[in-house]
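One example given next:
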Amino acid sequence: MKAGIPFSILLVEDDEDDRMIIDEAFVAIGFNTEVKKFTNGKALFHYLDSIETSLYPSLIVLDNTLPELESTDILSVLKRNIAYQSIPVVVYSTIVSPVKKQQLLSMGAYACYQKGTTMQEIIALAKELKQLSQKNIQEP
């Protein structure tokens, strides 16, 4: 039996500083215990494969630029796999070109967000992600 604790958001971010900053933003809004962080797509898939479907998150947040598997690669796998395709996925990045944003949305991304450059902007993003995760909670 696969077991674990539920997380509302799975965040895939390879940059340690960015993980620390978004973590501070989630702490600031009182949501840090519901966010699990990964440094790459392989770790994300390993985790998803190790838990029961009832423990799937209500939102996956991908950094646009990741090592080994890019956001487009991860999104493609998530949306092709019947077990994962109903999990909403958002992509966030410092800069996403309009062409890349359209590509991600056409592949099934729920939304694309800019990371923000001030703590106030990052807290606003954390609030938005929290709201999205709560909106997307699926009934068992």
